[in-house]
Amino acid sequence: MTVSRLTGVLGARAEGVELGPDMDPGVVAELRAALIEHEVLVVPGQGLSPEEQAGFSHLLGDYSPVPFVQPVPEHPEVIKVVKEASEPAAFNFGGVWHSDFSFLDAPPAFTVLHAIDVPDVGGDTVWASMTTACAQLPEEMRQALEQVTAVHSASASYSPAQQGLHSGLSGMDIRTSESAHETREHPLLVTHPETGKRSLFFNGTYVRGLRGPGIGDGTDEGGAHEKKLLRWLHDFTTHVRFTFRHRWSDGDVVLWDNRTTQHLALNDYGGQRRELNRTTVAGPEPVG
């Protein structure tokens, strides 16, 4: 296996490897190390069945259950991300900046996404490195954010008010619920459990509030500060200088570390079909 960097910030391409459930443990360890180092790893030219993809994901860790999105009936660990050519261009799954299911007590460590049928043009995915963003925080700002926790919730994406949008995707079965309004607090600045590196555990979709000295304390001044800081964090963490953009080809498998990245799928392929299979690997509770 050869690994080559794709940007100066994050992202690498691994070639000369065939993914599957029966891989040599040494190769798996090498692949995992590359994934953690580069945060996003592109492995081209793969042909995994849903069962093989789930088996490969198990080599990286336990299965991470997926809320709200129903799996492929015959493969309970695989969800299909699909938008038909005939469906409205106004909405696509994953089309806002997010880190997969950060609202869980223990969000996924890794996501594995396998391209089955992608558009000739459009439908790229963009990732942003929260490790690099954290390293470039002004020192005074970093010290202040050490005292802040983020309130994560699925309400903006999976509350019943959003059911109409999700029902527009005929190839996906997404069932919203009042449980989406539940909240969980995670530290805003976290330590990676394997590298010890610091990163911002933030995304503008699932982080619905902030708690800390003078922030989100129920006062008008605290609320204004909270709103301003949320906007600043979104603009800062998704700046182009922290990003990597991948142009998909059929057969690509892309793996990424949810603990150190956020991402979005671009919705610029109206009239074209896009289908990918996704599995997720369990991670620990974020630690500040």
Question: Can you describe this structure?
Answer:
The protein has helices spanning 25-38, 50-60, 130-135, 139-145, 155-158, 163-167, 220-237, and strands at 2-5, 12-15, 40-43, 79-83, 110-117, 125-129, 149-153, 183-187, 189-191, 198-200, 207-211, 243-246, 253-257, 261-265, 274-281. It is an alpha+beta fold and 288 residues long. The protein has one domain: Clavaminate synthase-like (Double-stranded beta-helix), CATH 3.60.130.10. The strands form 4 sheets. It has a 7-stranded mixed sheet. Strands 12-6-14 form a 3-stranded antiparallel sheet. Strands 8-7-11 form a 3-stranded antiparallel sheet. The radius of gyration is 19 Å and the shape is globular. The two termini are 34 Å apart. The model has no long low-confidence stretch (mean pLDDT 96).
The helix/strand order is EEHEHEEEHHEHHEEEEHEEEE
For the termini, the CA-CA separation is: 34 Å
The CATH C-level class name? Alpha Beta
Give the helix/strand class. Answer: alpha+beta
CATH topology: Double-stranded beta-helix
The total count of helices amounts to 7
Average pLDDT, rounded to a whole number, is 96
CATH superfamily: Clavaminate synthase-like
